[in-house]
Amino acid sequence: MQASSLSGKTYFIRTFGCQMNLHDSERVSGMLDSCGCLEVAGPEDADIVVFMTCCVREAADTRLYGQCSSCKSLPAPPGGKRVIAVGGCIAQRDGAGLLTNLDNVDVIFGTHSIAHVAELIEEAFADGGRHVRCEETDLEPATSMPWHRAENYRAWVPIMTGCNNFCSYCIVPYVRGREKSRPFEQIVDEVRGLVRSGVREVTLLGQNVNSYGRDLFGEPRFAELLRHVGDTGIERIFFTSSHPKDLLPETIDAMAEVPAVMPQLHLAVQSGSTRILKLMNRKYTREAYLDLIDRVRDRIPDIALSTDIIVGFPGETEEDFEQTLSLAEQVGYAQAFTFIYSKRDGTPAAKIDDPTPREVILERFNRLVKVIEDSAFAYNQGALGRRVPALIEGTSKKDPSRLLGKSPWNQTVHAPVPDGIEAADLVGKIVDVDVDVARTWYLSGTVVGSPR
């Protein structure tokens, strides 16, 4: 079968969910590019429409169904025939079952079948049939595929796939499989190659990066990996996600001692109640989490901490929720992703009955959001009057005369485009910004000195 039969066809990819899904989309895009396909800006101009899905929360299912339904009203594509494909976690979870509810979908491919997406799409064009591949293992891992990066100065680098933790509310281990680490030198070599191609920032990806290497070496080697990646010449290193139970002292030391590792840590707590944490199967207590925060801050005093918090886990009482509020106040997060519990069939938590009224959960959620907003505002006040290096991503969507970048603490930074300089020429450059405004979700100031 010749992959060249897709040559000249246009494609559009829409991605829902986490950074791992974004990277998977880059791999799908790279595969289609290698077949001679051309990326377009919207589904109306696409012969191939791909939805990369997330199934962590119920809203993702609803969104997928709506997006697929909207494709029915699109004008005819340039090539005269449109193939719609659904990949990612919902595809892995539901497989051929999706075809029952999505009557205009032609291809379903799971999280372990990304390497086969081109041949599945080609078959759909050739025979007009519906094709499904949702294997349980990845004999041809996506990391071996070509990829199409969204930016030439920044890259996602997956270091492992899957998860062994089985938090009681989470569907991820069932759709991504068990932890599987990539070879150590393969990761380091990939980053070296990215540096040579002009990449300045990488984000190391895994469902639980702190356990990297356990399946290969019998013990985690994430700290060692951080040090070796830091030796490649890369300027900025971020990583996600990080499970508290596996954040070892040597990893904290590496974060503090490797200059390229940015002073930012996403450490999901999910709840401040030890009772709820046990029901969630998180394998740490409130006290252990707070002690870990103290140890991190002892080594990296100005670190920007972010987290995930679930409100309304089945059986959560007002007392449990108050413990979450007090933990959030005590930690003082720079950022937090707050969610109302979403029941996922197939997980242990889905079997727990919860009589808590929806309006009570919503009221708690709003109280938590207020605490997070206050702590994010307070954290950003520390940048007032400081000179902050910002990696420029482009301009503000609201005002093209203002630059948009990210600080080493993962803060959004705005500044007017300097006179005599085109904003496009600064994308991927680092500029120093003297901060004179600090709001809840961004910093603002004036560019000083020359870009680099």
* Rg calc: 23 Å
Helix content: 25-40%
Q: How many distinct beta strands?
A: 19
Principal-axes shape call: globular
The number of helices is 14
What does this structure look like?
This protein has 452 residues and is α/β, with parallel strands linked by helices. The chain has 14 helices and 19 strands. A 6-stranded parallel sheet has the order 2-1-3-4-5-6, with helices on both faces. Helix 13 runs parallel beside helix 14 (358-381). The chain is globular. The termini are far apart. The relative contact order is 0.08. The model has no long low-confidence stretch (mean pLDDT 92).
Quickly list its features.
452 residues; alpha/beta; five-stranded mixed beta barrel
What is the topological layout?
Elements: E1 10-15, H1 19-34, E2 38-39, E3 48-53, H2 58-70, E4 83-88, H3 89-94, H4 98-101, E5 107-109, H5 117-127, E6 131-133, E7 154-158, E8 160-161, H6 172-176, E9 180-181, H7 184-196, E10 201-205, H8 214-217, H9 222-230, E11 236-240, H10 249-257, E12 264-266, H11 274-279, H12 286-299, E13 304-311, H13 318-331, E14 335-340, H14 358-381, E15 387-395, E16 402-406, E17 412-416, E18 430-438, E19 443-448
Parallel strand pairs: 1-2, 1-3, 3-4, 4-5, 5-6, 7-10, 10-11, 12-13, 13-14, 17-19
Antiparallel strand pairs: 8-9, 15-16, 15-18, 16-17, 18-19
Helix pairs in contact: 9-10, 13-14
